[in-house]
Amino acid sequence: MFVELLPEHVRKLISAGEVIESPADCVKELIENSLDAKATKIEVELVKGGKSYISVKDDGIGIHPQDIDKVILEYATSKIRSLEDLSYLQTYGFRGEALTAIAKVSRMLISSRFFQENAGMQMKVESGKVIYKRETGMSTGTKIEVFDLFYNLPARQKFLKKEDTERNKVLKLIKEYAIAKHNVHFVFVSNNRQVLNLPKVKDKKTRLEDLFNSPFEEFYREEDYIRLNLFVSTENQKGDLHVFVNSRPVFNRNLVEHLRRIVGYKKVGVCFIDIPSYMVDFNVHPKKREVKIYKERKVMEMLSNVFRKPKTTVTLSQEKPSYTTEPILVGTMDDTVAIIRLGDFLYFFDLHLLSERLNYEMGMDETKSCKLAFKSGDKIQREEILNLVSRWMEFSNPHVCPHGRPIYYKIYLGDIYKNLGRGY
Less Cβ around it within 10 Å: N or C end of the chain? Predict the structure, then answer.
């Protein structure tokens, strides 16, 4: 068998398949284009999990009529002009791969009206080739429709998951961008059924509380041109961590693991990192999902200290700051849990984890902190419990033990009186 070079069109198909592997990849690239086009509303629609139909519609500035042909060309982009521009990225997309990669592995219909034009343009593309181009009536913005993903690559089609799996991947993706962009209205429709409708809101905290149906506390830290905003759910549920760098959802294993140790595994934690663009590289992964931060150690140090000076915010309208009041011991349960009143809350402290965290804060390692901590069933005097809680108020991380388990659970007293039919 002689070695032969693959034809150019075959190489391009394989390359496109590496960038676009699923409906979620298509949606990701198209949402990012919409956000770069300053969209305030983005509507995503799927049929059969995106296998047969994907649509992403926005109200952004649109594509100029003179550019409509160029958007499917390889490396065609309006977002960078030189290699140096990669060091100062202000956009989500920049490589000029998205539309050309999708176009090569699908049948695509591009409809767009530039904001300064009276009419839009529509272009049909199959396997990367333009079938027709014509004028069309539409509102300002862009709508990309993708039909029959991988129809020309049946081998890759077989690797797509079940419809529900592909749909859920898209749903998770949309939620990530909805977190990143609270000032954008997101709508998701699957098989003619509305799955998600998230109107734009005033701030990130409101968006998170709408999405996760839980109140959140906000913590803030800023050092050396790096800003951290950490939001942590006040209620225990299945742990869920999200990291955003310059409003882009990213994965960085070191940061995620570090965040898990800080927040714990029963809380929802959402961390926003704003960092100068020259200190971060989004170009280390073909899908721009992973990120390299040049001062990663500094960021992790700031995360470790983020609870020391929490931003002055009120988690719920009826809540009041509770860390500055004197603790009152209400009682104990099974010589394991201490019930403490602090301000308008009842706290249920795990005494073992509380003392373990104190040992850790005093400089012991995780193993020694655990070994020397109070054990469940130990008889602990009232004064010792109150001293533990008083020390807890000064912890650098008062929320979880060194292993990530929650130290306490709290209940708002107003809710107790409300459920008993009494005012508070």
Answer: N
Residue type, position 393, single letter: M
Cα–Cα dist 317/129, whole Å? 57
Cβ contact 121:68 at 8 Å: yes
* Torsion sign across C-alpha atoms 361, 365, 367, 371: negative
Tokens of 385: 């419990």
Contact in structure between 201 and 182 (CB atoms under 8 Å): yes
Question: Is the torsion defined by CA of 66, 67, 68, 73 positive or negative?
Answer: positive
Contacts of residues 322-330 at CB distance under 8 Å and 24 or more positions apart, as own/partner, are 323/393, 323/398, 327/386, 327/389, 327/390, 329/382, 329/385, 329/386
**At what angle are helices 351-361 and 382-392 packed, to 10 degrees?**
50
Is residue 319 helix, strand or coil? Answer: coil
Distance CA 360, CA 397 (A): 10
Q: Mean pLDDT over residues 337-347, rounded?
A: 92
Terminal C-alpha separation, the chain: 85
Q: What is the mean pLDDT of the chain?
A: 85
Helix (H, G, I), strand (E, B) or coil at 110: strand
The Cα 234–Cα 42 span in angstroms is 30
Assigned token pair, 193: 């059924």
As a whole number of angstroms, the distance between CA 128 and CA 245 comes to 33
Burial pattern 38-75, b for ≥16 Cβ within 10 A else e, equals: ebebbbbbbbebbbebbbbbbbbbbbbbeebeebbeee
Q: Encoding tokens for residue 212? A: 């996760």
Tell me which of 414 and 140 has the higher pLDDT: 140
- Which contiguous run of DSSP H or E holds residue 214? none
Q: Which pLDDT tens digit goes with each residue over 385-402?
A: 999 999 998 888 888 999
Assign 16 a pLDDT band (cuts: 50, 70, 90): low
Check residue 190 and give its pLDDT. 97
Query: What Cα–Cα distance (Å) separates residue 106 from each residue in 99, 155, 355, 408?
Result: 11, 14, 59, 52
Residue 204 near residue 179, CB atoms below 8 Å: yes
